């Protein structure tokens, strides 16, 4: 159990050494220190997790130091290790270690490698602090640490304006969610008199039915607390309403995208809801909110993902959608299923992001899938890895054999348990999740077909033209100065690609070994993680040992749902695959015709349901207007005018008058002295 100290603090030590040592230590040494620390943490995490799987481990708490003692508020800095923590440990350290290794190749030519690797390690430490927290304040410490590290990583290329804007956006949007989280923590302390998570969860059932005054009304105490806490989860896990930062986070380097989307920041909200699941079980209204928001996010992100062209943005919206599955699983009371999907998703989503990075690396920084095509023979290892990730996320498997890729076991279980719940909200989540599964299959295979099949369309890419004209037909020329073009503002030589464009003489090459090894290891997770661990996560109450609320009756009902419900995800997966094949392989004119015929709907999805425009109208413009008014009227017109500027004007005008008196004539000075003397005598006498 003492190994938890090394697991948590090695990444922090590596971040400090790498960050302070920086270029004095050199690129290679910093990379060795940070990557080595993460692999050690990973190696120590797996035995803990496997011990819980085997039933040979007991939960425990490892004290670190006494933190706060102030009146009734008292808590220590301690590391809790139970089944839920063990699951998160292997997810975080495995993905982070592989991202560190992958970055050796991907960031090889970047001039600021020590800073990048230090940020990665800091990010990992913050997430580890969050998942090992024994009290809500310590969880909030890790929560905010993850937010800080994400700001640093998303804005890593700080000379790029769009990266700075994306980092600020992520930071600000998460502050909105964090306000709810803080209020939830404050309220929890007021109600329970402690921030200790075990004490709160033990006392939560007794608070069922209690009411509290809130905004002038008597409302359910637990519903208010849980909704406030969930608002924090909405920000961190990019749920509908507070999701707008997630796609823009693609402005960071691709390894950052894999780390944020697969193992750290976006899973924090799901983890928090599952950690506090006994609280949420006493708050039926809050659970309904969690279910609805999760299901709505699931379908929203899937619809947007079907229209995007940037390869990283497609996968980013896929992440948003998959997080929706996790939340509505938690909302219907299947916390084990939610954590199981979080576990499998970490492998195949990291695989897809790092695979996309390998494609971008091969295509000289090009991210628009319209300028790909026919890459499966050029970069075969990347192709097979991304194919495994696609099979996992779309849930390919054979029900009667009980065998399939990771998503087949975890996502299908979520749909089944939502149907088995039998409530209106559970049924709503089931249908939204099923339709989202169809869209997931469509946009995932769309990505594969546009990237790896068809004819090469590289010649129309400005990036490829630059590479060819500069004499760089080798993808190993990874010039950091041409930083990734994330977003919709990518400019190309022509407005639309020609499907007969050809290669322009460019020759994509496979990525270096340091990038391919992580892809290979993650491929194993995408293939086997679901099959190997499904029983422990879904059916074995003893596995969880009370670390989450486990509804055994609901799991039995899940296994008893009709056969059509069990096959629903596979059926819609095949439908999505067929539509994608028809549109992007059989007849490539279909997408343009569909976009034209469905003009308003297509534009609505392509523009992300106009959330950015809506927020710009409702919040950004008014905020700027108020800011300008306070600046021009309050600051310049009032404070400056009657403050420093006014005082300066008085001094200046007074100086002009005084200057006139200083004329250098002795009789003038004598006259002033005489007048002063007369005035003084007059004052004394009268």
Polypeptide structure, described:
The protein is mainly alpha-helical. The model is unreliable at 473-482 and 486-497 (pLDDT under 50). It has helices spanning 3-25, 27-54, 83-106, 113-131, 136-154, 161-192, 197-203, 221-236, 245-248, 254-263, 268-275, 277-280, 284-305, 311-331, 335-362, 380-393, 406-421, 424-452, 462-469, 513-539, 541-544, 552-559, 563-586, 590-597, 599-606, 611-642, 644-661, 666-685; strands spanning 60-70, 73-81, 211-214, 217-220, 397-398, 403-404. 52% of the residues are buried. Strands 1-2 form a two-stranded antiparallel sheet.
Looking at this protein, list some descriptive labels.
686 residues; mainly alpha; two-stranded antiparallel sheet
| Largest sheet: number of strands, sense, barrel closure | 2 strands, antiparallel
Helix content: over 70%
Q: What is the β-strand count?
A: 6
Overall morphology = globular
Estimated share of beta-strand residues: under 5%
Task: Tell me the structural class.
Answer: mainly alpha
Distance between the termini: 93 Å
Radius of gyration based on Cα positions: 30 Å
Q: What is the mean predicted local confidence, pLDDT?
A: 88
Q: Strand order of the main beta sheet, please?
A: 1-2
């Amino acid at each position: 159990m003492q190994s938890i100290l090394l697991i948590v603090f090695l990444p922090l030590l590596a971040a400090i050494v790498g960050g302070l040592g920086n270029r004095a230590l050199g690129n290679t040494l910093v990379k060795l220190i940070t990557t080595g620390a993460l692999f050690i943490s990973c190696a120590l995490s797996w035995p803990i997790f496997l011990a819980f799987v085997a039933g040979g481990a007991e939960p425990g708490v490892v004290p670190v130091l006494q933190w706060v003692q102030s009146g009734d508020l008292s808590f220590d800095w301690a590391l809790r290790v139970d089944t839920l923590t063990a699951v998160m440990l292997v997810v975080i350290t495995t993905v982070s270690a592989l991202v560190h290794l992958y970055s050796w190749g991907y960031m090889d030519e970047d001039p600021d490698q020590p800073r990048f690797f230090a940020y990665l390690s800091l990010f990992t430490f913050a997430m580890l602090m969050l998942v090992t927290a024994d009290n809500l304040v310590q969880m909030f410490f890790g929560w905010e640490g993850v937010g800080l590290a994400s700001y640093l990583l998303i804005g890593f290329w700080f000379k790029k304006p769009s990266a700075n804007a994306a980092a600020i956006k992520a930071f600000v949007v998460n502050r909105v969610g964090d306000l709810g989280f803080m209020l939830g923590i404050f309220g929890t302390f007021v109600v329970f008199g402690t921030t200790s998570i075990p004490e709160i969860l033990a006392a939560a059932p007794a608070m069922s039915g209690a009411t509290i005054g809130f905004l002038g009304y008597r409302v359910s105490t637990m519903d208010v607390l849980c909704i406030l806490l969930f608002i924090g989860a909405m920000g961190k896990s990019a749920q509908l309403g507070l999701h707008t930062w997630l796609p823009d986070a693609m402005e960071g380097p691709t390894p950052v995208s894999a780390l944020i989307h697969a193992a750290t920041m976006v899973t924090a909200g799901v983890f928090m809801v599952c950690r506090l699941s006994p609280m949420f079980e006493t708050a039926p209204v809050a659970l309904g909110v969690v279910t609805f928001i999760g299901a709505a996010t699931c379908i929203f992100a899937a619809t947007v993902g079907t229209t995007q062209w940037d390869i990283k943005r497609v996968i980013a919206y896929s992440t948003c959608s998959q997080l929706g599955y996790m939340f509505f699983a938690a909302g219907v009371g299947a916390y084990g299923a939610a954590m199981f999907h979080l576990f499998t998703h970490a492998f195949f989503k990291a695989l897809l992001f790092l695979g996309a990075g390998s494609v971008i690396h091969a295509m000289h920084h090009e991210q628009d899938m319209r300028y790909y095509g026919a890459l499966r023979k050029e970069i075969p290892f990347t192709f097979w890895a991304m194919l495994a990730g696609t099979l996992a996320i779309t849930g390919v498997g054979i029900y009667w054999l009980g065998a399939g890729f990771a998503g087949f076991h975890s996502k299908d279980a979520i749909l089944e348990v939502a149907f088995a719940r039998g409530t209106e909200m559970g049924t709503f989540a089931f249908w939204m999740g099923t339709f989202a599964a169809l869209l997931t299959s469509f946009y995932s295979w769309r990505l594969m077909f546009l990237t790896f099949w068809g004819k090469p369309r590289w010649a129309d890419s400005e990036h490829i033209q630059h590479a060819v004209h500069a004499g760089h037909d080798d993808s190993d020329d990874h010039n950091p100065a041409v930083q990734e073009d994330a977003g919709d503002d990518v400019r190309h030589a022509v407005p639309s690609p020609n499907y007969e464009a050809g290669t322009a003489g460019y020759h994509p090459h496979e990525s270096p070994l340091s990038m391919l090894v992580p892809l290979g290891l993650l491929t194993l997770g995408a293939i086997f993680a679901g099959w190997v661990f499904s029983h422990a996560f879904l059916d074995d109450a003893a596995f969880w040992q009370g670390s989450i609320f486990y509804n055994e009756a609901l799991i039995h009902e899940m296994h008893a749902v009709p056969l059509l419900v069990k096959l629903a995800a596979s059926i819609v997966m095949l439908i999505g695959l067929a539509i994608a094949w028809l549109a992007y392989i059989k007849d490539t004119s279909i997408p343009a015709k569909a976009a034209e015929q469905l003009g308003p709907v297509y534009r609505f999805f392509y523009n992300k349901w106009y959330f950015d425009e809506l927020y710009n109208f409702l919040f950004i413009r008014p905020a700027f207007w108020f800011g300008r008014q306070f600046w021009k009227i309050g600051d310049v017109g009032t404070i400056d005018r009657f403050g420093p500027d006014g005082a300066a004007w008085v001094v200046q005008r007074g100086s002009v008058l005084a200057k006139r008196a200083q004329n250098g004539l002795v009789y003038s000075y004598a006259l002033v002295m005489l007048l002063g003397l007369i005035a003084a005598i007059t004052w004394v006498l009268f």
